[in-house]
Amino acid sequence: MEQEYGVKTMIAQRSGIWKSLYAKYHLAMVLQGNIRLRFGEQNFYLSEKDVIIFVPGDQAEYFGGRKSLLIETEMDAAFLESRIPVHEGHFICNSSVDQQHDYAPLQRLMVKMALALTKGNDMSQTYYESLAYMLVYHLGSNYFEKTIVNIENVSEKYADRINEILLYIRQNYGKGITLSAMARHMRWSSSYLSRFFKNVFKENFVDYLKRYRLERSVHQLLYTKESVSYIAMDCGFPNASAYIQDFRAYYGETPGNYRKKYSIQKEFSRPMGKEDLSENAVSFLEKMTKDLETDTELIMDGRQECHYMADVDSEEKLVVPVWKTGISVAAASYMPFADIADEIKEAQKDIGFIYGRISFLMTNTFIYNPENDSYNFYYFTRMIQALRKDGMIPYLDINYACTNVPVKGKNYIIDAGEFLRCLEALLLYSANVFGIGEMEKWIYDIGIVFHFTTHNCEDPDAFAERFAGAYRLIKRIVPGARVGGFDVSAVFMADHCELILNRLAQKKIVPDFISVNIFPYVSLENNGYINYAYASGDGFLKKYVENFKGMIRRCCQPGDKIPEFFVSAVGTTLMHRHYLNDTCYQSAFVAKMVIDLVEDVDLLCYYQLSDMNFSGAEDQRLLGGRNGLVAQFGIHKPGYLIFMLMSAMSNRLIARGADYMITKGDHDTYNILLCNPVKISGEWCLKINENTSLSNAYTIYEPGESKSIFITLNHVNDGDYRIISYHVNRENGSLFDEWEKTGFWENPGIHELDYLRQAIHPKRNCSMRSSVNGQLNFHIHVQPFEVVMIEVVRMV
């Protein structure tokens, strides 16, 4: 059924094989059946509701099952191109492979357009026309992206230069621009720009500019009623005569003849009536309409679709950049066995953590040998030097490990005298080697001794005495040091922390900070036996932090300074190896952690940098379920990629919600972080001591649902913006999923490791977008476990 003007809609019932060569823009949507589509060198499989677009010149071959039913909508080039700047970009519209866009708007409009043809009343024509214009609006707003670079065989390192050249030409082609003027804009010499331009575009600047102006003039010839003289001047030609001469040389005829030959001046015709449609087609349309309306209701109640708005000129919140404040780099006892320096160097290059935490530094056999009453600071010195070399500040975890520590009942017995002697020796050695000024930058975290699985713990009263002695000792030797700690578990040690704070208050000691470690567990006690389950609820990190901070405020005396709040260790698991540490759960956990805690903590330290640290001997498998950001062979896990992407965010927060965060940088730049975490299922929550098999790793999670997220930035400066989005999901950036595709390697060889190092990276999309009336809109389809980072930069 045809519309003689810009839009033609039909319902086709087809089977077998058929080929199409498109002379117009063509949207196809499957109503019934399954279709295999061969398009170029690719095959696509379209099922019910799938939508795909073809542009003029595309050729496709269809393979349809019995009685395949399609809605097909054609749009004349003149109708579409006068409303969408197709010469500046490309359409992304293929729901069979594209998971980043929500196709419900197109689906609803195409079905409604087809049903409008079944109506016989006088208003059906007007209704059809309004739907046609809405279809074009959605295509241009949601499924069209301006191209940043489409120059072939050019290194990506030149992308920004090429983009700036193209943007300058697009913004100034109607003016009398010259090569020297553009060279001044680029801050290059004219000769260098001329050579660069010829190498990239394979023609000189004058010829390129003339061709660009002629191509832009064609749009005005076809889609406006302006005179040839006006178009010539508007497109940068010196006069109409020069324009006509250049046009004839390029297109073979005058602008006036070209306009008469190709301009389309037709009107809508009456849509065909219901009698022209088969009953089967009408029933499918009506059924799909009901399904799509149900989808709309789900969207409206907030379960599938979210719309967030941020005013970029509102008051900014300066926040601590918790996404790079700290990382646990190694436990003291593993310093001799891991080449940590290379790992620190790489993390600093990619992320730039501020603090590097050394765990269990005061293990009673690490720096002190009781057999000959001697100290050895060799490995400690290596670690401090490695941190300082790459610009990381030492975070000293002054905590005894549980090895060989006597136990009385449930309490560890710590020799406070020996502890203070070792600490004093360490401080005096550091002061002599590194200097007091350097040591005043460090963090000194004095932790209570506690065992996670046995619940054996140092007596809180005894610890308060030991902490007071260590606090005074550090402040005497390093007066400007930040001293605090306890390193207590947020899951079940709030009472211990409160008791210690009250004892210290009696001694007139207020720690500079309180440190808490948070892991996703809750404790379960049954007949005196303590076990743990995963904490699968939303916002458990935020809940633990709020509870602890409230307790700290209650313990402080009026007029006392409230200690800072540090999360000294946080991660997906603590003591049990589990493949959830290797899947995309890790990346979603990291993003959600930052979003939840960004305004509530003063320092956040992720546990831990590498699987090689804390772990001892490794196995033959590529992955072992440990909780590092880097696998044992130095390959980045999903969590590492997210920290790397977040490092570009500024500390100027303008918006935050349950699953998103937006920061503002300098010169009209913005970063948008989105995540779609998936809960661990209730069944697996009760099986903390069990590790699932590799092939069943994802069965421990609840079924995840995709999110359709709209972001609107209000009050932005009008102009063109470069949009770069990075996606970490199961298809892109997941070491575990890439490993699984290979069939679970054991004893991976050098070629396999090299392949994975190259393969594990986020998916990167680039586009250009223009703000309209001070508003930028984004529509992102976020898969389960997926994290998306969007960089928005205004082009000037």
From TrEMBL:
Alphabetized UniProt keyword annotations: DNA-binding, Glycosidase, Hydrolase, Transcription, Transcription regulation
Presence of keyword Transcription: yes
Keyword Hydrolase included in the entry's annotation: yes
UniProt-listed PROSITE patterns: HTH_ARAC_FAMILY_1, HTH_ARAC_FAMILY_2
Domain HTH araC/xylS-type: start-end pairs: 163-261
GO molecular function: DNA-binding transcription factor activity; hydrolase activity, acting on glycosyl bonds; sequence-specific DNA binding
Coiled coil: none
Family: Belongs to the glycosyl hydrolase 39 family.
Entries under PANTHER family matching the protein: ARAC-FAMILY TRANSCRIPTIONAL REGULATOR, HTH-TYPE TRANSCRIPTIONAL REGULATOR EXSA
Protein name per UniProt: AraC-like DNA-binding protein
Organism per entry: Catenibacillus scindens
